[in-house]
Amino acid sequence: MISCAFGACRRTTTEYRFVAHPLGTVDRVLVAAPACLDRFGPIATKADLVEHPFIHVKGIFANEQLPLQSEDNKLEYARTRTVTTTSHWRPMFDTILACGGIGVVQAQACVNALARGKSRAPRHHACR
Questions:
Q1: CA 120, CA 113: separation in Å to the nearest integer?
Q2: What is the pLDDT at residue 115?
Q3: Is the model's pTM score more than 0.85?
Q4: What's the CATH code, domain 26-127?
Q5: For the chain, which residues make up each domain, given as ranges?
């Protein structure tokens, strides 16, 4: 997305207050507490996501359409069913761990919980 915004600035030669430069990526992971998957069922396909309560930070994924990039880099959208929004990633993550639903967090935020088995990545999709 950053390179697209930068490309648009160049093509239109419009002055903007900030310039985007591609520096790298920030990985996000769709996670759920194991108890949540036991309660609401496994997530085997993107269609299964709507059966699970979805938690997100306000303004992110607010349209109930989750952009998923498959292993072959194909972008697809999955419907979600928002039940809770938070103002910060930490309460969202705590709610996910307490079996309040599933959500998308930055990979670094959940690396330890994944390693300890407190949360689980339901599918091998990267969220954009």
A1: 8
A2: 61
A3: no
A4: 3.40.190.290
A5: 26-127
